[in-house]
Amino acid sequence: MTTPNQNIKVAVDAAIFTIKNDSLQILLIQMKKNPFTESWAIPGGMIQNDETTLDSALRILTTQTGLRGVFLEQLKTFDDQTRDPAGRVISVAHWALVPDHDIQLKTTEKYADVRWWNVNKLPKLAYDHDLIVKEALARLKSKIQYTNIVWSLLPVEFTLTQLQHVYEIILGNAMDKRNFRKRISDLKLIRPVGKKSTGAAHRPAELFSFRQRKLDYVEIV
Amino acid sequence: MTTPNQNIKVAVDAAIFTIKNDSLQILLIQMKKNPFTESWAIPGGMIQNDETTLDSALRILTTQTGLRGVFLEQLKTFDDQTRDPAGRVISVAHWALVPDHDIQLKTTEKYADVRWWNVNKLPKLAYDHDLIVKEALARLKSKIQYTNIVWSLLPVEFTLTQLQHVYEIILGNAMDKRNFRKRISDLKLIRPVGKKSTGAAHRPAELFSFRQRKLDYVEIV
DNA sequence: ACAAAAGTGTTGTTACTACACCCATGG
DNA sequence: CCATGGGTGTAGTAACAACACTTTTGT
User: Fold this and answer.
1) Which of A30, A82, A210, B51 could make a disulfide contact with A113, Cβ separation 3.0–4.6 Å?
2) Is B88 close to A46, i.e. CB distance below 8 A?
3) How far is Cα of residue B102 from the mean position of the Cα atoms in its chain?
4) Measured CA A204 to C1' C24 distance, in angstroms
5) What are the angstrom distances between the C-alpha of A7 and each of A48, A77, A220?
6) Which residues are CB-contacts of A124 (< 8 A; sequence separation ≥ 6)?
7) Is residue B121 within 8 Å of B180, Cβ to Cβ?
């Protein structure tokens, strides 16, 4: 059997999330090129011959946010024949979590605009990006419950209340403070850094940091 | 920005599992083509311009096993630059579960041989297929615990003991009969068909069938 | 009558939920 | 001294784990 003469291109798209203003937000770019001029989409592009899709996703992430060392992984490959009107392009979608602080979004010539959007108030997206975002959100909600990935949404030192808010925003329901702290404490994912928050008009909170700032599965001992 | 001139091919590989002789087995083919002559691998091939990767995986599954209507889904895309010595080929790996009964493996000209292998006694595989199989196994172990996918490993009518054995073989640990039955009963995934098994030298067992023979997430009410 | 798997409940332990008040700070 | 979020324990309930004997069939 001979190899069929394929005419298929491989792209990478990246769903990049952060927590900002007490809501879960996603980074969208506004497109220039036809037929999606003015449309919003998640950032992406064709992969180069010598890079892996993860390399490519990292490149997108760094180009847009300037960040490295955050959580980033493959999501799923989207390959419907009609997903790109310009021809057969399959997209190996990735997703990432970035901390809010210190981020300065970078505009490139490629796009008309770049900004964060509340995931509950998204515009209609280009291509099949609605679907990609939907799957990424589902993965986030699921994976936050059995891994330590929240580390990638928080500063190195944070309070227990900040941590709880991240869970509440992503999972969409309020949690009991005492029960939350008990559970977190049992998981042994974080440790106190021995400092307290300052400057707020209330009792200072103890600061914690993650033991590992990379993917780790929670052992339910 | 212009589209780079890509020289990347898209393949699909399929990890196909069954339960046979009280063990978890995977379908491997023996290759003919260089440099993997005689090596074993999971079945796969290039996708065609007009088919999705899922179509392609379905084609592979049907070609090898003659089956349709079983559980099949995308696993992950493998795209290391060096995974195929013949050039840059990314593989959108899929995985499937098939029932043991009624399967007659089909040999094609493409391969030297096809047979089932116990997943605990695998030979060294071609390409990065060791890695693909490892990921597929992890997904199976995980997904069997919060979905109804076992339906795809069993005949339409089965006994509770058969069902329990499938879980025990995949998860690798013995389970308590009474607790298992309580749990299964609570999940409401199966229903009695009103018949009993016959022919064995012991008390006949009640037969059950799945309410749905397609992917369903278990609601832990 | 014996071998072999089917079927069936209870009890103790552990994990989870609900819930309210005092504390430390800044303004 | 007031407003704001920080920090802490207990009791009731629900889920889970461990465990053994009787039943029905084929040979």
Assistant:
1) A30
2) no
3) 16
4) 7
5) 16, 17, 47
6) A39, A130
7) no
Number of H helices, E strands in chain B: 4, 9
pLDDT tens digits along B32-86: 988 999 999 999 999 999 999 999 999 999 999 999 999 999 999 999 999 999 9
Tell me, which fold does domain A149-210 have in CATH? Arc Repressor Mutant, subunit A (1.10.10)
Q: Tell me the CA–C1' distance in angstroms for B146 and D7.
A: 36
Query: Once rounded to an integer, what is the mean pLDDT over residues A100-115?
Result: 88
CB-CB contact of A109 with A29 (8 Å) = no
CATH of domain B9-129: 3.90.79.10
User: Shortest Cα distance from B93 to chain A (angstroms)?
Assistant: 10
| Residue A2 CB contacts under 8 Å (≥ 6 apart), including other chains | none
Catalogue the E-assigned strands of B140-219: 190-196, 206-210
Q: Tell whether A92 is within 8 A of chain B (Cβ).
A: yes
State whether residue A81 sits within 8 Å of chain B by CB: yes
The CATH 3.90.79.10 domain(s) of chain B lie at 9-129
The answer to whether B82 contacts chain A (CB < 8 Å) is: no
Residues of chain B with C-beta less than 8 angstroms from the C-beta of A9: 3, 6, 8
For residues A106 and B161, the model is more confident at: B161
The mean-pLDDT minimum among B76-85, B106-115, B184-193 falls in B106-115
Which nucleotides in chain D lie less than 7 Å from some protein C-beta?
Answer: 3-10, 16-20, 23-27
Token pair of B5 as six digits: 């001139």
User: Alpha-carbon distance A73 to A57, whole Å?
Assistant: 9
User: What secondary structure letter does DSSP report for A5?
Assistant: -
CATH superfamily of the A9-143 domain: Nucleoside Triphosphate Pyrophosphohydrolase (3.90.79.10)
Whose CA is closest to A17, among A132, A110, A123, A109? A132
- Fill in the amino acid letter for B73: E
Specify the residue for token string 């770049």: A114
